[in-house]
Amino acid sequence: MEPWDVTIVGGGILGTSFAYWLATRYEGRIAVLEKEPQVALHTSRRNTGVVHRPFYLDPVGRKVFARSSQIAYGMWRAYAASRGLPWVPVGTFEIATREDRVSHLETYRKWGLANGMGEDELSLLTEGEVRALEPNVRCHGAIWSKTDTSVDYQAFTVALRDDAERAGARFLRGVLRSPGAWEDPGRRDHPGPRSGAAGARRDLACLRRLRLPPRDDDH
Ligand SMILES: Cc1cc2nc3c(=O)[nH]c(=O)nc-3n(C[C@H](O)[C@H](O)[C@H](O)COP(=O)(O)OP(=O)(O)OC[C@H]3O[C@@H](n4cnc5c(N)ncnc54)[C@H](O)[C@@H]3O)c2cc1C
């Protein structure tokens, strides 16, 4: 196999986004191994298809996730516009099914605002207001996150693959990464894939050491 600088296993939306991000910013040989003949044939095709807003994320306890979610929302919206992809803000109701959960809805509103959402994106609804909008829902109240957005993750993945390929990344389809394929003791610094959070942290550490030179064009 060719000596890739970075090898990513899995051409779902995560692997493909990562390849796009690397290929458009850095010089380097970047490959994505995908066991299927095409990208996004698994979870990224069958998920719920919603880009969520961060009202339910504690801005202190889940700070990184909350900030990433807020920043990523604008990036996905801009990317969808630039590539003509579906982007339909449909909104979400998070409902209180018990009286003692109503106070939590206010907490969600505060969290959403603290995470960068606008006042106009969030509304607290009484039981009657929910009933007027969704006659079949029974609850004690709700928070309405108006900009949760319906998208097509498979279309996003295919567009990102096209852009990543244009920037030089290679997608090797029909390639199954077999267990143990990266256990080369001479290549400890190579950011080969590992599974799980600990593996991901190790891979990011490897990537920092790799120091790929930045690209000087405007891909
Ligand atoms: C039911 C459900 C609904 C969801 N809804 C949402 C949602 O609305 N919004 C949201 O943001 N998130 C949602 N998620 C979270 C979901 O995890 C992400 O949306 C996303 O699709 C995951 O992408 P992925 O690239 O990690 O995985 P996948 O799309 O599954 O990609 C993994 C790829 O790796 C390949 N692969 C696996 N093993 C190997 C191997 N050994 N060698 C080579 N290739 C391999 C697979 O073929 C696959 O293409 C949902 C998850 C589920 C399960």
Task: Name some characteristics of this structure.
alpha/beta; 219 residues; 2 domains; binds flavin-adenine dinucleotide; 7 helices
What binds here, in terms of ligands, is: flavin-adenine dinucleotide
| Largest sheet descriptor | 3 strands, parallel
Distance separating the two termini? 27 Å
- Reading side by side through the largest sheet, how are the strands ordered? 1-2-9
What would you call the structural class? alpha/beta
Shape: elongated
Low-confidence stretches: 184-188
Residue share in helices?
25-40%
What is the number of helical segments per DSSP (H or I, 4+ residues)? 7
| Helix and strand element order | EHEHEHEEHEHEEHEH
- CA gyration radius, whole angstroms: 21 Å
Q: Supply the number of structural domains.
A: 2
Number of strands: 9
Calculate the mean pLDDT score and round it.
Answer: 90
Strand content: 5-15%
Describe this structure in words.
By secondary structure, the chain is of the alpha/beta class. The chain has two domains: 1-10 and 20-46 and 152-219, no CATH class; 50-151, no CATH class. The chain has seven helices and nine strands, in the order E-H-E-H-E-H-E-E-H-E-H-E-E-H-E-H. A three-stranded parallel β-sheet has the order 1-2-9, with helices on one face. It is elongated, with a radius of gyration of 21 Å. Residues 184-188 have low confidence and may be disordered. Bound molecules: flavin-adenine dinucleotide. Flavin-adenine dinucleotide is lined by residues 9-15, 33-36, 40-44, 47-50, 52, 153, 176-177.
